[in-house]
Fold this sequence. Notes:
Blueprint: H1 4-34, H2 39-48, H3 66-103, H4 109-116, E1 121-124, E2 140-144, E3 147-157, E4 165-172, E5 180-187, E6 193-196, E7 211-221, E8 225-230, H5 238-269, H6 287-315, H7 324-350, H8 361-369, H9 378-390
Amino acid sequence: METGSLKKSKDILYKNLEDVFERCGKRAAHYDANNLFFQDDFEELKEAGYLLMSVPEEHGGYGMKMSETMALTRKLAYHAAPTALGLNMHVYWTGLIADLHRSGDTSLDWVLEEAGRGKVFAAGHGESGNDSPLLYSTCIANKVEGGYKFKGHKMFGSLSPVWDFLGFHGQDNSNPDNPMVIHAFMPRSAQNYEIKKTWDNVLGMRATQSNDTILNDVFVPNEYVVRRVPAGFKGVDQFILGIFAWALLGFSNVYFGLALHIVDMVLEKLPNKSSISLGRPSMAYNGLIQHDVADMILELESIEPHLNTIVEDWSNGKDYGDAWGVKIVAAKCHASEGSWRIADKAMDIMGGAGIIRQSGFERLFRDARLAKIHPANTYLAREIIAKGMLGLDLDLKPR
C-alpha cells in the first residue's frame, strides 16, 4: 500500500514532468538539426526526478514498477523520442535491478544506491556482427587476478556524454566447450577505453549521441562483475530476462509514443491540405486517404492494449515461465513494426510537405525508421517467436 507521502511525491513528480516534457519537445528539432546531445533535457529531467522513477523508495527514488515507468517513457517520447530512448538505457538498469531487489536478490543493490545518489548508468551491449545481442559477445573477457580485462568494440552507446557506469558484457572463451558471458559495469574512471564519436548526422535519433566505445584491455574488478552465465539462450536467468524485458518494452513504448505524435500531427494538418479536384474542401475528404488514416488508427488500437497487457503482467509478476521471452519479443516486434507502418503511411498523406525540415514531420519519420533495427530486430524476433512456440532449441545450429 502506498503511503500518503509517496503518493503526494509522485503527484508532484507527474506535475513537474508535464512542463519539462513540453520544453523537451520544443528543443527536439534543434538537437536533431545540430547533431547535439539532449543536454538541457537531461539536466532538467534529472533535476525533476525522472531518472529516479524506478529506484526504490529506500534508495531515494519513487519505487515505480514497469507499468508506471513505461507510461512516463511513452509520454516523454511523444514530445522528444530521442531523449526518451537515450534515458531508457538508464531506466532499464534501475528498473531491472529494482525488480531483482523486490524478489529477494540484493546482490546489485549497490547500483540502486549509486542511482539514488545521482549516478547515471548506460548500456554497452551493441556489437557489429553480433546477431544475438546480449547472449553472445564479440568482446573478449579474459580472467585476471582480481577481475576481468575486456577488449572489444561496442556500438550504440547512448548517454555517452553523461554516463557514470557503463553496463556491458564480454565473452570468456578460455574453455571452448563452455564459453561464458561476463556481465559487468565499467566506471567512467576506468583506464584503457575510448569513446569514439561516430554519431554524426545518422539517419535518426541523433540526440542520443550513441557513440562507440572501444575497450582496450579495460580492467574491471570483481566488485563490478555482476553475472557469469553460459553463452546463448541457456544462459538466460532473471537478470538477462529482465534486461530484455526492460530494454525491449522500453523501446516499444518510445516508438509507440512517437507514433501517437505522428498520428496527431496528421489529424491536425490533413484538414488544412487543400484540394481543387471534385470540389473537395480538403484532402481529408479523399476516400483513399481516409482509408490510410483508418489503417493508422487500427495500428494504434492494436499496439496499445498489447503493450499495456505485457507491461502490466510483468509488473504484477505473472508467471509465463519460458514463454516470457516470446511475449516480450512479440510485443516489441508488434509495436516497432506497427509504429513504422504508421509513419510510412503518414508520409504518403503528408505528401511533398512531409520531406521539408520545417514541417517537423521528416525528423519524426527518420526517427521512426530506427524502430525495427533495435533488438530484437525483425529477423531475430521471428526466430525466437517461432522456435519458442514450436518447442525448438533456440541455440540449435545451424540457425
